[in-house]
Write a structure and sequence with these properties.
four-stranded antiparallel β-sheet, mainly beta, single chain, 11 strands, 126 residues
Length: 126
Amino acid sequence: QVQLVESGGGLVQAGGSLRVSCAASGRTFSSYAMGWFRQAPGKEREFVAAISWSGSTVYADSVKGRFTISRDNAKNTVYLQMNSLKPEDTAVYYCAADQKYSGTYPPARPGPYDYWGQGTQVTVSS
């Protein structure tokens, strides 16, 4: 069983920056694919970014060039650095872990991910 705990959400003005973190339990964290997803009120959960065990990354077009996903395997933590934030980035942000992943690039859809955190709210004011 893997437990994921997000932190770092909050309120920020448009154009500002925020970093959210996700701490994971599990002795084999370094082998997981890790992803960030978000869900705004009334909308479906959508993919934001993901990172493989080797550091390969995938981003949604809407955040490419503004968001950066990274991981620190020594701390069992994955990060999402968000710059140039826009009001449309407002959502609950969830991290997710895929224990079974074995490809080069991590999954960019929710289905393959086995474990999910409780989410952290990010609000961007205009």
